[in-house]
Amino acid sequence: MTESRALLVFTAAPDREAGMKLLKSAVAAHLAASGQVVGPAGTAFWHLGELGTGEEWQLTLRTTSERYAELEAHLLEHHPWDNPEIMYLTVGGGSQACLEWLKRETRTSS
């Protein structure tokens, strides 16, 4: 079995309220240990073959590789957009206390 790695997971929401709702539900379910909602951020994107622009609120969540699949499923189920962007980066390091806290807060109860 491979050791769980710390991840930073990114998505966006149409407004602060929707972002906070996603963040709070993920943390309450211990799928993420913490996160932030920041915005609004200007955005440009391709959607259905057309260039679009707008504003969105950025979400960053801290989780482990062990919990990522469940977190992704949760975000997809509760996200207000049909096909939201969800990506992650593997954390290369950090303070030992922080990394232990992250694993403890996202540990499954079984």
Structural write-up:
This protein is of the alpha+beta class and 110 residues long. The chain has one domain: 2-Layer Sandwich (Alpha-Beta Plaits). It is 32% helix and 37% strand. The protein contains three helices and four strands; from the N terminus they run βαββαβα. It has helices spanning 16-28, 68-78, 96-106; strands at residues 6-13, 34-47, 50-64, 87-90. Strands 2-3-1-4 form a four-stranded antiparallel beta sheet.
Summarize the structure.
This protein is an alpha+beta fold and 110 residues long. 32% of the residues lie in helices and 37% in strands. The chain has one domain: Alpha-Beta Plaits, CATH 3.30.70.120.
Which second-level CATH architecture applies?
2-Layer Sandwich
The beta-strand count equals: 4
Q: How does the overall form come out from the CA principal axes?
A: elongated
End-to-end C-alpha gap:
17 Å
What is the strand arrangement across the widest sheet? Answer: 2-3-1-4
Helices and strands, in order, run as EHEEHEH
Largest sheet: 4 strands, antiparallel
Sheet/helix structural class: alpha+beta
Share in helix = 25-40%
Provide the domain count.
Answer: 1
Low-confidence segments: none
Instruction: Give the CATH class.
Output: Alpha Beta
Q: What is the CATH fold-level name? A: Alpha-Beta Plaits
Radius of gyration: 15 Å
Mean pLDDT: 95
Strand percentage: 35-45%
Q: What's the helix count?
A: 3
